[in-house]
Amino acid sequence: MNRLETPDPATVLTRIFGYESFRSFQEEAIRHVIAGGNALILMPTGGGKSLCYQIPALCRPGVGVVVSPLIALMQDQVEALRQRGVRAAAWNSASSDEEIDRIVEALAAEALDLLYVAPERLMMPAFLERVIARAKLALFAIDEAHCVSEWGHDFRPEYLQLAALAERFPAVPRVALTATADLRTRAEIMERLHLDGGRMFVASFDRPNIVYRIEPLRGRETQLLEFLKRHAGASGIVYCRARKSTEEFAELLEAEGYNAFAYHAGMDARSRRKALERFQSEDAVIAVATIAFGMGIDKPDVRFVAHLDMPKNVEAYYQETGRAGRDGQPSEAYLLYGAGDEVTLRRFIEQSEAPEARKAIERAKLEQLLRILRASRCRREALLAYFGEAKPAPCAACDICLDRGAMEDATEPMRKFLSCVFRTGERFGAAHVIDVLLGNTTEKIIQFGHVTVSTYGIGQELSKKQWRAVADHAHATGLVRPHDNGFGGLVLTDAARPVLRGEQRVMMKIPAQRERVKRRAATVPPGGSAALAHGPLFDALRAYRLDLARAAGVAPYTIFHDRTLEEIAALKPATLDMLSHVYGIGVLKLEKYGPAVLEIVKRHRDAASARPSADANLAGASAANLGKPWTAQQDQVLRRRWDEGAGVAALAAELGRGSGGIEARLVRLGLVPDRETARMRP
Ligand code: ADP
Ligand code: ZN
């Protein structure tokens, strides 16, 4: 790196990358590698692993060779680096002859900082000897290093060959990086990549900006649509198990006006590549995908990951949800968990051709995931404990912690439910058990003579929906489980006994009778991304970014992250110096885009002072209908918007009335029981 007088890591961090300070152990690891040491870097997705080899590569003489398994990922990283003025290139099957010539020349002239290459290519003897061995080497970085471990969840045999690097280039430091590695996988990486004398750097795996929310499955469609309302205008991933589901849900979302597409391994390579590009380059885009949509994704502004089906183990869950919020902004991981799903997963394991030992591992891993889903324990704590990490900073960002205040004693209803499962012979699903509790007379009840069981009709104090919640909770906490025969009947577990005997209390959230009103009020996003209101300046900056991205044929975030735009919008810098302190603005970006950005800010400032504020307009409109009688049409709008989740304040503005008038009308139309409830939705 000859463009800086002193290639000091801290200087590179601010001047090239535009960041103020190192995170976690970054600096220590970087200095260790610059000094020639080997290292294993463990950091959650989005933690900032890349800098741990990128900066050493810039500070050491020669080129840093980065082994990466996926071409799409390589290309994006190279693009982002070039935007910062780093001399980076990728050599892969998609490279043209000219590109390859240029790389070879650059290597000979020591004019390349980073070279990305797939493991199988790197280890081809011809490539290794004619290209790599002739270049001056700064380091080897081995990304997704868990792929070398057979115990890990993504073993790739071609990674095993990387072991030879140690012998062939003993003087070149090697840095292995991964976001998932339990203790056993870590040991395998150290051993198989011969990171002798290397240091292990382990960051906290906590992702504080992700809200974890796990809900019993009631209906995928309604739950998904309700969830998405909290993330209007955001990009995200919706994971489904079946290919067909991805297509169905993508269609549903498109029909609802979302920018969504399906993605699964059954699609041809071209459509898959197009879909990936679309995801990387568009704003407010939703991928409805099987888990085939995965490792190549490096979009920093993914605001949510929703699982409509259960993942198969904790590693998979954490890795999939980890794709949300790489930029550190508030994001949400949402999972629907239903009894049928568990049955399916078990059947998959039993019916697979895998050797018994592998099945045993998978069974054990599934159990560990189920324990986390069922427990009424902080999700973050449970997940981190799984990865061997003690309790992190207090969590206020998972469904359990957020809803803690709303728990009530549900011991009696739970005893009734369990008892009814038992009395009806432990062979029926929740729907039938609930019919018995409610004293309904269905065909099935008559057929099985269940009017005569002692629990018939003893549960009329709760509604069907409320019983549903009790049943879900029983299942989620492992008091009942589906019968092994796979027909969906429920049986009691050992854990049910103390509850039935009245020795153990059950705390849970029972939805209110008028469930819709209450539940909506409770799901106002705690950091849901729709809460990130962006003003007109942000939008103008975003439009500018999109123009630049289109012109350069790159993904918008390689030019500026959302966070950078947000900071600019908030700071409204007037000078290049002020702008240089914004997150992600290094020397090159300042030079390239600085003047245009300042111009946009200035124009915006002028325009804002010239016209009355948008708020003032709204206030003017809001008086329009004050005191006038309600028309049928207004009632209709009110109903619809309330159903859509609009709050009292928004409705007041939209309908030109005061909040009091809106509250009164909501009560009048029977949409809420009283004005108090209406006010709960601000
Ligand atoms: P991963 O660990 O998933 O490879 P990345 O290296 O892609 O994560 O980093 C995630 C994001 O955090 C990137 O946008 C990166 O530029 C940013 N980042 C990394 N280190 C820092 C830092 N010290 N300060 C600010 N942002 C950083
Ligand atoms: Zn929590």
Explain what this protein looks like in three dimensions:
The relative contact order is 0.08. Helix 8 (164-168) links the parallel strand 5 and strand 6. A 7-stranded parallel β-sheet has the order 3-4-2-5-6-1-7, with helices on both faces. It has a 6-stranded parallel β-sheet with strand order 8-13-12-9-11-10, with helices on both faces. Strands 14-17 form a two-stranded antiparallel sheet. It folds into 4 domains: 9-202, P-loop containing nucleotide triphosphate hydrolases (Rossmann fold, 3-Layer(aba) Sandwich), CATH 3.40.50.300; 210-405, P-loop containing nucleotide triphosphate hydrolases (Rossmann fold); 409-508, Winged helix-like DNA-binding domain superfamily/Winged helix DNA-binding domain (Arc Repressor Mutant, subunit A, Orthogonal Bundle), CATH 1.10.10.10; 533-679, HRDC domain (DNA polymerase, domain 1, Orthogonal Bundle), CATH 1.10.150. Residues 1-6, 515-533 and 612-623 have low confidence and may be disordered. The two termini are 55 Å apart. The longest helix is centred in the last third of the chain and has 24 residues, at 587-610. It contains 33 helices and 17 strands. With 682 residues, the chain is of the alpha/beta class. Helix 19 packs across helix 21 and helix 31 crosses helix 32. The radius of gyration is 28 Å and the shape is globular. The structure holds adenosine-5'-diphosphate and zinc ion (ZN). The site of zinc ion has 7 residues, from helix 16 and helix 17.
